């Protein structure tokens, strides 16, 4: 069977695909995806460098849970608890191998999750043909935003796994064809779990709920909703029961006071489209071109059953990303999964529409060239910042009391996180996040330099340590000049070319400065 025959649009999707071809595509896609996540880390500073603040926050929260502390009740966490549960096995492993190695293993596992997600895209698209499966899977494999979120622990990677598994099942549904109750419940449960990892998953729950209503009817849609409720409850309810007020405040209310981003609509579109690494002007013309191209791709994708579901989910998530107040590159990871399904579906539809073999070959070559160009910026990407963990650990391990820091990566890479737990130190995994979780009446939540309550809290926490290491905040970023001066006045007990270890408590000892 030729790839063109297998890739024909919905009218011929019933054709049974070759198993061998699908396996080869899956292996290729998995290998490319894993390499695109691992190589930038190895090319950078390696697995034991400073890879990601957010990932360290989630890992630190999981380590807290492994030591009997509950998020929301015992420490701040601004996200649902699903990511904590996902990282719990690695935090438990760290009790045997150390936190630096536990985090490194978790990072490699997340790269594997990225490869799995890319393969799931190929599985969703396989009924539309080998070309559709290969293009969609490779598109996901080289998508810049997901390379970023899948090179180390992140919310988006595991949330995408749940979404793709749900799309794999739901894309097979047909009108007036009975669907097993357990399948509908499972799709809902998967998306409920996704919402328990990243709260924005509720948008996908709504989008797939609409798909369920249109394809399998009201009764199945109700079952789907029950499944979603069961999924999110399984993840969140135990933590909510333990601390209902704090959890609601941190996960829901604190998101409403995030500082609006200055990123333009064109910048967001560039990130969502995966072309922000290209030298393109972020202008209205870019929006127009992107809009026209998106319409054409979606129109082609609608010819494929999986593509129709992909369009529904992509439109819902894309619309949300365009209106959300805050903006970071990793937000685009939310649209990557449905975008890959849509792009792959469009490629499969194009091959199916091509009547001549030469024209089909042109489509395949153009898709390969486009993916190669698309991957270009990522090929030069590096991740990680060098961190002299041994030198700093040797200094801080000799200090009394707790080690405090503005970035949990410092505690993880020096293997001092466990020592803090053993000494009963307070767990502060997201010092910056406290700027969003302040008493009512504080208005400058996100602008930390203007937030007097956060400045006071940060200094009070850092000053409570026998030794402290600030690697994230400084004058002009987070700290005011006055706060930075306070830190600089603390006695210095260790120094490397880029980092200084202070001993805040030493100033209180007899003879201390």
Task: Summarize this structure as a short list of keywords or feature phrases.
single chain; 513 residues; mainly alpha; four-stranded mixed sheet; two-stranded parallel sheet; 3% strand; disordered N terminus
Largest sheet: 4 strands, mixed
Kindly provide the radius of gyration, computed on alpha-carbon positions and rounded to a whole number of angstroms. Answer: 24 Å
Computed structural class: mainly alpha
Please identify the oligomeric state.
single chain
Whole-Å distance between the termini?
80 Å
Q: Give the low-pLDDT segments.
A: 1-16
How many E-type strands? 6
Quick one: overall form?
A: globular
Instruction: Give the H and E element order.
Output: HHHHHHHHHHHHHHHHHEHHHEEEHEE
Q: Which strands sit side by side, in order, in the main sheet?
A: 1-2-6-5
Architecture overview:
With 513 residues, the chain is mostly helical. Helices cover 62% and strands 3% of the residues. It is built from 21 helices and 6 strands. The protein has helices at residues 3-6, 19-43, 53-66, 82-97, 99-125, 130-142, 144-149, 155-170, 181-195, 201-242, 244-251, 265-273, 284-301, 305-323, 333-353, 357-379, 389-396, 408-413, 417-422, 452-463, 481-489, and strands at 403-405, 467-469, 474-475, 478-479, 492-495, 500-502. It has a 4-stranded mixed beta sheet with strand order 1-2-6-5, sandwiched between helices. Helix 10 (201-242) packs antiparallel against helix 11. The N and C termini lie far apart (80 Å).
Give me the secondary-structure topology.
Elements: H1 3-6, H2 19-43, H3 53-66, H4 82-97, H5 99-125, H6 130-142, H7 144-149, H8 155-170, H9 181-195, H10 201-242, H11 244-251, H12 265-273, H13 284-301, H14 305-323, H15 333-353, H16 357-379, H17 389-396, E1 403-405, H18 408-413, H19 417-422, H20 452-463, E2 467-469, E3 474-475, E4 478-479, H21 481-489, E5 492-495, E6 500-502
Parallel strand pairs: 1-2, 3-4
Antiparallel strand pairs: 2-6, 5-6
Helix pairs in contact: 2-5, 2-6, 3-4, 4-5, 5-6, 5-8, 5-15, 6-15, 6-16, 8-9, 8-10, 8-15, 9-10, 10-11, 10-14, 12-13, 13-15, 14-15, 15-16
